[in-house]
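DM from R.C. (forwarded with permission)

"hey, sorry to bug you on a friday — could you get me a structure for this? deadline for the figure draft is monday and I only need the backbone to look sensible"
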Amino acid sequence: MDALTRNLTYLGALLARPALFTLYFLSGFVPRRSDLWVFGSWGGHRFADNAASLFLHCQAELSGSVRLVWISRDGNIVRKLRDEGYEAHRVWSARGLACCLRAGVYFFDNFCKDVNYWTSRSARKVNLWSGVPLKAFERDIDNPRNRYYRLFHGSPPERLFLSIMMPWHVDRPDLIIATSSENAQITRRAFGVQDDAVAITGYPRNDILFEDSGNGQQARQGWPEPFRHAVDAGRFVFLYLPTYRDSAKPFVDVDWTDVDRLMERHDAIFFLKLHPDDRGSLDATGARVIELPQGIDIYGLLPATDALISDYSSIIFDYMMLERPIIHYLPDLDEFRASSRSLIFDPAEIAVGPVCESGATLTEALFAVLEGVQAPLDTQTRWSEIRRRMNLYCDGRSGRRVLAEITRRFPELRTVRHEEPDLGS
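My reply, with the result:
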């Protein structure tokens, strides 16, 4: 998007704000139905992450007693879900608006705009969030150049203008879920909510990691064809998932030809996928180095992979539950600290595998994994300690705990009886 287009988009959004804030105010007077729940993910552009996982879990647990609706800005997502027998509507369609105005609960991965912020006043709002916070976020961001820092800590005119443009960031949810007590403390501070607004349930998206059918037919339906072929052929599968850089600067320094040759020698495949907010490309080439499409939900892929490569992404804490090799590729650590958000955890201190700062050391680490080189004993010990710190529950029952927490906190919501998990285990 060029500067002119971007400025025109912002101008249009600003001119629309009076009408949208009027809609938001009026939506608070519409009677809400306790048996109508709406879900959305990543600004309405994806069917993925915790929201998608909880949506599918609720279909199994609550279908018939609660009306469950997915709201999206993407017509392809709506059509696909309808073909699979689920109710889904576009956000500004007549039916989508009707559902959002009457829904008693909104479930979303990041902010209420994942569904429709402008119709959400007086609804219960449940933020399922998008990961264990390795990077500072929301009120914890300390980089004055970051617009979110200015939203919460800037001058009064800056805060007013940005809160008008991004009101979902200052709108506090009724409930946020977390994976551990340490994670919960960070989340409370970043969102500026009371202690009891955060519940430690684990993330529903990780439940698939514990299912015996993780590589079964249902999970395979979301696999891209090259990934399916690699798994069916019994090849060793690497998955590289870098996080988003606020600076948008290039960060990969890898000789993809060398990586491709290494994969060929060991009958392995190297898949990579950029963060959903990243609009760039890694420009990787080779029959054994394959970039996956942006729109896929990677959690359906994880159980079928053999090793993960990542950097400052919370995906490492999720992947630890599989007890498989993790490589930490940090080629731009100093640049990331200088131009992006600060890090809550030092990557080296939480690393549970080799830390690579160049493409050459990354290739060496890939070779070591393929050769089955064992991690040192102190690394194995740190692995167990960090997994306990970041994930209180490793049992595949997080979706059930979220439903139990909702039932406990919001008694006005009508649900069917479902299996109660052991919240203390």
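R.C.: lifesaver. The mean pLDDT is 87.
me: no worries. The first strand starts at residue 33 and ends at 40.
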